[in-house]
Amino acid sequence: MELKTFPMGGIHLDKHKITSDKPIKEAGLPEIVYIPIKQHIGAPSKIKVQKGDKVKVGTLLADADGIVSADVHSSVSGEVIKIEDIVDADAYLSTMVVIKVEGDVFEPTIDQGPEIKKEITLSAEEIVKKIRESGIVGMGGAGYPTPIKATIPEGKRVNTLIVNGIECEAFLTADDRLMVERAEEIVIGAKILNKALGIQNAIIAIDENKPRAIEIMKKITRKYVGVNVRVCESKYPQGAEKQLIKAITGREVPSGKLPIDVHCIVQNVGTVHAIYEAVQKNKPLFERIITVTGDNAAENPQNFRARIGTPASFLIKQVTTHPENIGKVIFGGGMMGVSAVNMDAPVTKLTSGILLLNDEDATKPPETACIRCARCADSCPMGLRPFAIATAIRNHDNKELKQLHIMDCIECGTCSFICPARIPLLDYCKLGKMEIRKQKK
Amino acid sequence: MDIITSSIIMLGGIALASGVVLYFVSKKFYVKEDAKISEVEKLLPGVNCGACGKAGCHDFAKACSKANAEGFKQLYCTVGGNKVMQKVAEALGYRQEEKEETVAVLRCQGTCQNAPSKFEYTGLKSCRLVAQISTSQSECPYGCVRLGDCVSVCKFGALKIDKELGIPVVDENKCVSCGACVEICPKKLFEIRPKGKDGKRVYVACRNQQKGAIARKNCSAACIGCMKCTKINPEIKVENNLSYIPTSVDAETYGQELADNCPTGAIVYTGRKEKKHGA
Lengths: 441, 279
Prior knowledge:
The complex is a heterodimer.
Chain A: E1 24-26, E2 32-36, E3 46-47, E4 54-55, E5 60-63, E6 72-73, E7 78-87, E8 93-101, H1 124-133, H2 146-150, E9 160-165, H3 174-181, H4 183-197, E10 202-207, H5 211-221, E11 227-232, H6 241-249, E12 264-268, H7 269-281, E13 287-293, E14 302-307, H8 312-319, E15 326-331, E16 338-339, E17 353-358, H9 359-362, H10 375-379, H11 386-394, H12 398-403, H13 414-418, H14 425-440
Parallel strand pairs in A: 1-14, 9-10, 9-12, 10-11, 13-17
Antiparallel strand pairs in A: 2-8, 3-5, 4-7, 5-6, 7-8, 13-14, 15-16, 15-17
Chain B: H1 3-28, H2 35-43, H3 57-66, H4 69-72, H5 81-92, E1 102-106, H6 127-133, H7 149-153, E2 159-161, E3 168-170, H8 180-184, E4 190-194, E5 202-204, H9 212-218, H10 228-232, E6 237-239, E7 242-244, H11 251-261, E8 267-269
Antiparallel strand pairs in B: 1-4, 2-3, 5-8, 6-7
Helix pairs in contact in B: 2-3, 2-5
């Protein structure tokens, strides 16, 4: 079968998917969880609990403030011991609800049964309401509140739902394992979204480097009308929204526009699975699959199902007995992940992986001068010229930056990865986007 | 006629014709500019820094020549200072009151010693970027990032990163208080303050708004909001666990006392006499 891909740029990575055959393991309950009340793009949620309150798994902790916001639920049962600003993974202070774990009592409304509920009884409006109440956000990493993507704005039209199971990021296997173990639930989740959007078809896009997931998904989708599997070439960044739409439908999202302008909606498989659990099982988003991995620093890399708010150190302890070997901890994958400064920082709705590097792997080779090889421009999936962007930023030239379309940068990191002179081109692009945003204000 | 002669005649003809056209156009559309503008512009430093709020020196000269006596008082070239403004005033026949000279001060003492780095940063050396992806190199989320964006933006060479301290140091003889550092600093650590009599000024060199204990843990020279300074001079206000000394507080009268009584040394008095030296 012909493999789908996007035409411009991209690189072939050594993906280090060392955990792809490790089954999802329950991470267990830590003693204390830290639940940030802002785990999404948009306004922070309004806190509903107080110090001393007893909570159960699934109790509402914070309420969405406005449309671009999301509910936050308790991931454990126990007592709220404090609500305060705590340093998160990026060293920023963010308000967190700290809960001391006592037992594991679920809210009675949550259906904990193992059986798969296939019948979709709710109406489109009820589905969106349920998604909103369950606090679901885009779990691929962007954290855009899902209810907004499940409703079609006035005057727009949607005809394709793409379920993103590409996971082109190096090291991560959380989505892969989810597709292998929860295939049917993902397909039902896609049907639920179809109903909410009022369309009939869904495409599950999977990277060719996940043969088991492809096989299982193909088998399951035979039973469901309108859900199809498309296999994509193993290229980075195939899983980026715009690149995926181009590969699957051939449509190009214009600069500054959203996928909905080309009649597409893209949802991550993790999000779709969470939608299934929310709608069919009445289960709010309080746990997620997370890959804790590393080539040399992790002895026993694993895929975990971890509660939101679990400190990273709790998971790291389970994969290595020699924490002193760790030189760098990265939240996310090898390409787009951000290194953390706080080992006790909690897992959020958006953390798809924790990557451990030893000192040697974490050391960057020194930067040298640009040799004008233009490999950054050749490999940029958005067709930008990162070397020119870097020069413009060094010269504080914002006019030039706009002409170079810097706002189209998807921050995939391809340019930094490919650069033989080791120039931190991604850092330059991030800085440039920041400057333009500041100017607009 | 061969090709060379024909092209010479053609191109020569075009040049002559356009020359004639251009001559008449430039006569017809000549914009008479006020002679004062160029006169004033010659007096200005010509750095085009934009500190006066105008788009470069020419724009400032234009504004000066257009302004009336009252409006002129509002205009001030910080780079040239009183000297230049006096000359400009003379040229225009106005009177310019002397303005107090100002200087940029760094309101942070998060040096490598006071607030040690908590991680090794290997990415692009830019404070603004680090401030976006993380907070700063030290534990203090309000403190100096120590990567020197302010140094790169200073057109007068008045800032440099002290190798030992790690934080930028202002050379007050070179600083013209153009405000470029104030603009670029992601932590808003710079402030333009009056130079003070004999260069004596007093200010709180901290922006940390955390609670005292946390602030102190993050940086040994942090303002902990202990209110001691407010008892010395009631004009000083403590807001969000952070003290701010307004410029109205006289440095010579209160400076020494304030600096001596600050338990963490967050208050900096430039004319301070160290106690231990016995002076």
